[in-house]
Structures are given as structure tokens and as C-alpha cells.
Amino acid sequence: MEQDVYQFVKAFVSIIWEAFPFVVLGAIIAGILEEVVPQQAIAKIVPKNTLLAVCIGAVLGLVFPMCECGIVPVMRRLLRKGLPLGTCVAYMLAGPIINLIVISSTAVAFGPHGIGPQMVTLRVGLGFIVAVTTALIVQAQYRKYGNRLLTPLAMPVTDQHGALEAIEGTPIHPSVNRAGESRPLFQRIANISETALHDFVDIMVFLTLGACLAGALKVWGPTADDVQAMSEGYPALTILAMMLMAIAMCLCSEADAFVAASFTTMAPSAKVAFLVLGPMFDLKLLLMFTRVFRRRLIVTIVVTVFVQVFVYSMAVHYLLADWLKPAPLTGP
Amino acid sequence: MGHAHAHAHTEGEGTYFLDQLFTILACGALGLVAILMYQTGVLSRILVPMFFPWVVGGGTAILIMACVRAIAVWQLAGARRAAEAQEEAADYREDHGHEHAHSHSHGSGEACGHEHSHAAAREHDHGHSHDHAHSHAGGEEEAHDHGWAPWRYMIIAIPVFLFFLGLPRAGVSDWERTRNTGSGLQSGSLRKSVALLAGGLAYPKTQPRRLQLRFNELTEAAALPVRHEAYEGDIGVIRGQFSRRADSDREFSLFRVKMTCCAADQIFLETRIIAPDASTLRGIQPNQWVQVEGVISFQQNEKGKWIPVITMQSADAIDPNAEPTNDVNAF
Predict the structure, then answer these.
(1) Does chain A have fewer CB atoms within 10 Å around its N or its C terminus?
(2) Looking at the DSSP assignment, which residues form a beta bridge with residue B254?
């Protein structure tokens, strides 16, 4: 039991400290966004066409790469600044997959297995499709329910006519639309620090709780080898098991490809499910979502993503099995 | 749609500053611990070196933010105290027993963006009280929490406490090693039968090559049966950490822990070694680094996973004083 606890602490602490710098980065970016970016600026840049706006959100990670932990505070401030919910959701879901770091790590992880390009193509392609489809559904839901889908901390600042407006407040109040106002430099930095620390604490609390759950499951849950042995011969079961593993393990999207590659006898379709779902939704992200979205929206996102990943992975299993077979390689 | 609420702040003016104080302390402590973890080497137990600059940079950044915030809150508290002193002086000049209030309104659907508590209203012992009213025009439910939530700070203080308790510990525990290298080899495979007929577990080659192998090179080859023939029968030299097996006195595992980013993603790479006799392994401790030379073959374990097997050909084919290496990490 003592060894179990040490192992739990190791996994728990490692998840926290790995995510820590990216949460700090996300919180500081959130603070700068809140302080510097004018309320109207983002709304003006985004295309009016919903599909185009969502597609841009899905590939934004190529320009602004962020991991799944850092993306949450940034997205919350972008929502407040008027970025459409669908675009934000597309960026949140696809950003941790469609960025150069993750694309490279996937290629490196599966390169020695002879299926590097195939896995990269499937991961990026399915990640894009899942993110865009989910974002379009979310955007449709937003038209019906409006800001009731968001927590107060994530609601865009608008007046009754839908136009963005500034609100009054105290000099240190982070909800104030300060951008464009002339303020002393220290006051600006102090404002950024207030928003950044607030968002950092807010997200770290739920990151810590998520890491705790993930650490417990890593120690007391089944190993990947167990899952592999139990579900052998049943592709649907294997894919579902790997999706649950992705949710439970809370791995960083830069590292998960190496873990997936280590499941040597598992079907590639199950690995694809693991690689596409993990960066979009896991235990720590679920808890972090509660700081941005209401329950209705969280359920929509989770169900839409989960169902799509399962269906697409099954299609990969039955339609692309030959394409995913490694070519015979020469020896050393 | 709109609603208004007014509340006398009986929780006291200290709540806002208490919340700010705890935010500063919690963030500052985490930043400091991030730097200390690097300095004391604890970070290397849980993260790969690639992340060290990130963690130190993140710790420094949050520490600076906490310092800036501390100065800002200090200034605010000073300004607030001066304003209160002026207000009280004015109150004494007026008739006691009046009531005054202040309010601010939030725009439609707007929220403050953070939980906060208000320090403005308070009750005086000389007969007047302040009321502080918000009106949320077109607002949602309660847009922010009044008062502070100590449980949040207790949760984010956990990594700080664990660091000062000396956790997590270094090295590979018995539990990890046994869990990840404990599976037995399958018996009855055709390849194994042929190899046994040839004199051992290894499938022989007429002109074997001597290969100095990286650990993951062999485990990656094991994962792909199409690559087995390229290695089988050759002489492999490989370095790893020793793990004794409970079910055999001449079979042991060499393992390496491959960490891509953090300890949560670490995986165990294993090569099974067959020694000529039990005396070869005498005195070798668990986790000790050894170098082994022998004939390469591949076998499935009980869970169906292919693992490399090296059959030592003599007792001196093991070097128990091998230097540790770090050649399995991806980056």
C-alpha cells in the first residue's frame, strides 16, 4: 500500500508540474488579453461566415500553439472579448492536436513502427473534423440558448442590444474594459497580474483535482497491457477501452503518441482513438471546463466528441486497416 | 430579465484582502517551489530535462506576478485606509445615525470576470451602516462569489506540501518494477520450439553479427514481427537495469524507463535475459545497471506482447558495473 501511495504521488505531482508552466503562460496571456485587447477588436477580425470562422479556429494552433491546459484560461478571456463560441471551441479542441510540436512528436513516435505519416494524417485529419463538427453543433446551440451556456466568467461583455460596451469599475477590477485607456505602466502590469493570478488559481485548483484522479487511476486502474489483453479480438471494445484510457490518463498531447506507440499489439484504430480523444477531453480538462461552460454545453461537447471519435475510429479499423499496416523494414 | 440584489457586507472588509493575500501567498509559494524543485534535483524525478527551463520560467513568472500583485494590494490597502480615515473624520463632523449607500451596475449579461468580495461596506459602532448594492441589468445568476473559498488554496497548496515532505521519491520502486516486468513468457510457440531444438531459446544464425544495441531499438523491433528475422540469431549487446524474476533463478529482465514528458507518461521497456546458470546472477541488486551480451530472439509474454529475449552464452557475458545511460528518451 505504501508503494502504491508513492506511485500515486509521483504520477499526480508529475502531471501538475508538467502542466504548471503552460497554465502560467495561459494565465499571463489571459491577463494581457484582458488589459490590452480592445473589446471590439477580435469581433471585427473574425469572419462572419460561421463555417469559415470555425475552420480558422481549428487551425489556429498552427500559429498560436498551446497545450490543452494553457488553452482554457486564454479561451475564457477570448470569449469575454467577443470571439464566437464556435471558434473558441474549435481552437480548444483542435489546438492541442493541430500544432507543429504535436505533429512532430506523433511522427517521431510512430516513425520506427513504419506508420508515422499515416498516424499523423489520421490524427490531424480526424482532429480537425471532430473539432469543426463539434464547434458547429455548439454554435447552433448557442443561437438557441445564448450566454446561458457559459459561466459568468466567460460571458462576452455586451449591452442589451448586443453591442460590446465598457463597464465601470474600480481601477483594479479585472472585468473593466481597460484596453485603449491611458494608464500608468505599473497600473497596467498590476491589472495584468490580478487577472493572471486569478485565472491561474482558478485553473490550478481544477488541474490539481484532475491530476489527483488521473494519478489514482494510473496506480489502481488497469494497465494498457491489461486493456490490450482483455479486449483482444473485439475492435469496438478495444477502441472504447483506449478512449477511456485517454480520459483517465490525462497525458499531455506532446507525449501521448509515445505512450500509444508502446501498445505494440494493439490495433492502430484504437491508437488513433486514443490520440484524437485525449487532447480534447480528459478528467482534468473536464474539471477545467466547469470554469468556462455550463453543464449543458459540457455535455454537448463531451458527447459529440466521444461519439465522433468512436465512429471515425471504427471506420478507420474497417476501411483503412491495410493502409495502416507497417511496410517490411530492413534490419540494422 | 434583470435582477438586483443588495447586501450589507457583514462578512467584513477583510475578506477581499484576505482573498488577495492568500492568492499572492499560494501563487508565490508555487513559484518558489518550482524553482526549488529544479535546484534540489527533485524535478528530474518527475520530468524530462526538456521541461526544466519551462518550469523554472513559469515559477519565476508567477513569482514576479505575485510580487507585483502584493505591491498593488499594499497600495490599495493604504489608499483605502486613507479614504476611510477621511470618511470617518467627515462622519464625526456630521450627525451620527444616518445611513449611506453606494452602488454600481453591471452591464447586461456581464459578469465581473472573477470572484471577489467587497470591502466597502461595514458597520460602525457609532450607529450608522453602509449598504452596498449591485444591480445586474439583464444579468444571469449570481455572477460572482462573495466571500472567499479557503478550500481552493488548500488544494493548490498540496504540491507545495508534498515538496517539503520530500515527495516524490527518487528511483524505481519494487512495485513499479514488478508490475511492469512481471509477465512470464508464453510457451509452445513454433519459433520457440525450433529454437529449443537448436540448443536454446535463441534462433541460431550461421554467421551472426555482433550488434551494439540501443535499448529501444530492440523493443521497437520486437513490436513488429516483420522485423524479427532481421535481428534473430545475431549477438546483441545491451545495457539496462536489472530486475530479478520470482519464477526463475536463471531468467531475469533488463528494463529501462522511458519518459517522454513526465512520470505519468513513462513506459517500461523490457528485454528478457536467459542466463546459463543461477550463479551468474549472484550479488546483482534490483535496479543495478548491467550490460549483457547474447543471442537475440523474440517471444510473446502471457499478455500477448512481443518482447526481446537475449540468451547469454557464458557466465562472463554480463557486466555488473555498467554505466547508466539515457538513450531511450525521444527528444
Answers:
(1) N
(2) B242, B271
